[in-house]
């Protein structure tokens, strides 16, 4: 049937959406008043919407319904959620302490592997996390440990050199490991043999 003079159909109420009241999401049009989370009915905007196929949710309800499940996947840091998800149509089983599932995952996720195999800084020996990691000499370093081993100068990619697993600034490297003799900046005179 042709759509004479009207706009697209609303993804929630199926009525005509005119341009002045239209919000588009995931290739579909909605009235501003119909742009609500399908679970909790909270008003949405471009920063709070999460779409799944033809459904729209707030990020909290989307995470509860389609996000990872289990201990450690709560709503905030250190949170263990007791939300069963019944209001979202979820059927989460409440297991007894003696579950038939093994206590350690048989196929750990990339995140779990990263938490176990955290890189160690060669200078201080402590864990190096992604937010503070600088690569040098093929190894991960803390930003604060990324210094010359001799003079302690802070290093950058433009002035770093490495030797035997240690980092040096170009000046200290040249003085200690560079070529020696006339014309190399190490000696200004040739000593005469007597």
Series of secondary-structure elements, N-terminal to C-terminal = EEEEEEHHEEEEEEH
CATH superfamily placement of the domain at 22-66: Cysteine Rich Protein
Outline the biggest β-sheet. Answer: 2 strands, antiparallel
At the fold tier of CATH, the topology name of the domain at 22-66 is Cysteine Rich Protein
Strand and helix layout:
Layout: E1 8-9, E2 16-17, E3 22-25, E4 28-31, E5 49-52, E6 55-58, H1 59-66, H2 110-116, E7 119-120, E8 127-128, E9 133-136, E10 139-142, E11 160-163, E12 166-169, H3 170-177
Antiparallel strand pairs: 1-2, 3-4, 5-6, 7-8, 9-10, 11-12
Pfam family, one: LIM
GO molecular function: actinin binding; metal ion binding; structural constituent of muscle
Subcellular location: Nucleus
Commentary on this structure:
The chain has helices at 59-66, 110-116, 170-177; strands at 8-9, 16-17, 22-25, 28-31, 49-52, 55-58, 119-120, 127-128, 133-136, 139-142, 160-163, 166-169. The longest helix is centred in the first third of the chain and has 8 residues, at 59-66. Among the domains are: 22-66, Cysteine Rich Protein; 133-177, Cysteine Rich Protein, CATH 2.10.110.10. 12% of the residues lie in helices and 21% in strands. It is α+β, with helices and mostly antiparallel strands and 194 residues long. A hairpin with a 2-residue loop joins strand 11 and strand 12 (166-169). The chain contains 3 helices and 12 strands, in the order E-E-E-E-E-E-H-H-E-E-E-E-E-E-H.
